[in-house]
Amino acid sequence: MATGRMRDLRLGDLLEHVPILEEDPGTAALIHRLRHVTRAGGFSRAELLAMCRWKSPRALPQCRRNPAPRIRAVSRAVLTTRSERRRMEQLTALRGVSVPMASAILTLLDPRRYGVLDIRVWQLLFALRSVGVNARGRGFTVDQWLGYLRELRRHARACGVTPRALEWTLFCHHRAVQTGRLYS
Question: What mean pLDDT do residues 104-113 have?
Answer without folding.
Answer: 98
